[in-house]
User: What shape does this take?
Amino acid sequence: MAENRVALITGAGRGIGAKIALTLASENIDIAVVDYGEESAAAETMSALAAAGVKAKYYRCDVSDFTATKAVVDAVVKEFGKIDILVNNAGITADNLILRMEEADWDRVLNINLKGCFNMIKHVTPYMMRKRYGRIVSISSVVGLMGNAGQANYAASKAGIVGLTKTVAKEFGARNITANAVAPGFIKTAMTDALTEEQKKEMYKLIPLGCLGETDDIANAVKFLTSDAARYITGVVLKVDGGMYI
Ligand code: NAP
Assistant: This one.
């Protein structure tokens, strides 16, 4: 029997990242969950991964910390033997119009959303190069492609992921490492659950398919991009947005 592949997924304790972890686990992929909070906050995800019958371990780490991400990547390789798949999913928002945006909110969002991806890619790719195999997927956003009033920091970080992804695709293609981005539109999560019916109705008008996406829609895109079926796909930004940005 072929040995399981290993995926390191950031921000996998909850939300979209947790769904990505469970979806890859259903493909017999072992999972290193890297997240910011206490392990107890990810207890539900960790027990679902155990129930899926794969090896799974939780690592607490702030993805914006260069030194800490190196230590985590080394620890994951020590424990699992390798990293075949990296999913950069951790992300935050700190919204405000530029006129009111504090410097600290700009820095925090860029450091976690964009530098966090650089940190993980920087530390994971030497291991992937040695194996001459790697699948990197980073979660961007349609907001990074279309802009959004009140989200200058977030949109810039998500647009940055697009440039980073295309560059990684070019630098590492010869080593059989692919790099792609997924750009979700509005996805049903705790964040969008908090919107009023009126706000949701306004949102639906922007989406040709007329509804919010599910975390499954994003997880399935990641599953595809990390599968053998996508072996010849690199440097793309796959929009999963119900047609919101065409
Ligand atoms: P979420 O529910 O807020 O989850 C974000 C995850 O990232 C949490 O597990 C969080 O950990 C973790 N995280 C935050 N800061 C971190 C840090 N410094 N280091 C490590 N982990 C950190 O968000 P989501 O809705 O699932 O979104 C996941 C990704 O999709 C994000 O990159 C987001 O920008 C993107 N996205 C989402 C939507 C949407 O509609 N939801 C649309 C477009 C793009 P804690 O739980 O410990 O805080």
Remarks:
- The mean pLDDT is 96.
- The two ends are 43 Å apart (CA to CA).
- Residues 10-11, 13-17, 35-37, 41, 62-64, 89-92, 112, 139, 141, 184, 186-187, 189-192 surround NAP (CB under 6 Å).
